[in-house]
Design goal:
It holds the Pfam family ADH_zinc_N_2. GO terms for molecular function: fatty acid synthase activity; oxidoreductase activity. The protein has three domains: 82 residues, NAD(P)-binding Rossmann-like Domain (Rossmann fold, 3-Layer(aba) Sandwich); 50 residues, no CATH class; 106 residues, 3-Layer(aba) Sandwich (Rossmann fold). The protein is an alpha/beta fold and 282 residues long.
């Protein structure tokens, strides 16, 4: 049976719970093999169908004594704690299995999976093969096999297209970030690793699409702060930076602010209007 894209869900946050319940039409699954900690453990338990079985293989939940509410067992589910390293304890069965596999290697009963090897210049073809229609392993060959002599390998450089990434532990400030371009830029930042973003807007959230974007990002575990502090003044700009610093060291500031000329009398200086949408004295 081949697995489709719909068989995979993101386990970095609890969105997988909704994915699974939607895919099973609200029924849930019969068996969960879990290693996710904390709140994600509870989300995994909620994915169980009636009479389901939950197998916990993550040690962190055991060492942290993560609590489970008894109400979760109202669907007649069973919970099993499994220590995988205990499978490697000294016992006769383990030696019997190792000997059985070793004998299989010797008599040819156990053979390695077939391997399809691509050169480092054939990366695209290798990924095209990863469609589930082949049997065995797909391997990229970076360099020729070398002797077992202990020495440093000759450096091999692979051509690649540079890609911008952002640091999850640092914060990013987008002045005027709730506009159309600001929302797209925020999505791009998050897609490249940013997890702490401050969006400033004089009106705050004022459209359904803005609220939808913020809810989607927060559901993925992203810290989003909406600030209505006026950045056109030194005091306001300073306060915005102070708020951003509470999330983490500021790694980038993007000025996307725009002020309509109709908000000001024509007689007033255009240079004043330009200055109103810039951050000065940072």
């Amino acid at each position: 049976m081949l697995l489709a894209d719909s068989n995979f869900a993101n386990s970095r946050n609890s969105t997988f719970e909704q994915h699974i319940m939607t895919a099973t039409k609200g029924r849930g699954v019969d068996l969960v093999l879990n290693s996710l900690p904390g709140e994600l453990l509870l989300a995994s338990v909620r994915c169980l169908a009636k009479n389901g079985r939950f197998c916990e293989i993550g040690k962190l939940n055991f060492s942290n004594n993560t609590p489970l509410g008894l109400s979760l067992f109202s669907n007649n589910i069973s919970f099993h704690g499994i220590l995988l390293d205990s499978l490697f304890d000294d016992n006769r069965e383990r030696y019997d299995v190792v000997k059985l596999v070793s004998d299989g290697f010797k008599n040819g009963a156990v053979r390695p999976l077939p391997v399809t090897i691509f050169d480092d210049t054939e990366v695209e073809q290798a990924f095209r093969l990863a469609t589930g229609e082949h049997i065995g392993k797909v391997v990229l060959k970076i360099r020729d096999e070398e002797s077992r002599a202990s020495r440093l390998a000759t450096p091999k450089y692979v051509s690649a297209i540079p890609r911008t990434y952002f640091k999850a532990e640092k914060s990013y400030l987008l002045v005027g970030g709730l506009g159309g371009f600001g929302l797209e830029l925020t999505n791009w930042l998050i897609g490249r690793g940013a997890t702490k973003v401050v969006l400033t807007s004089r009106r705050g959230l004022y459209s359904g699409y803005q609220s939808l974007c913020v809810r989607k990002w927060k559901s993925r575990g992203i810290s989003i702060l909406i600030s209505t502090i006026d950045c056109s003044t030194v005091a306001g700009a300073t306060k915005n930076i102070e708020e951003t610093l509470r999330l983490g060291l500021v790694d980038g500031i993007f000025n996307l602010a725009a002020v309509s000329i109709h908000d000001y009398p024509i007689a007033r200086s255009i240079s004043l209007l330009i200055c109103m949408i810039k951050l000065n004295h940072l």
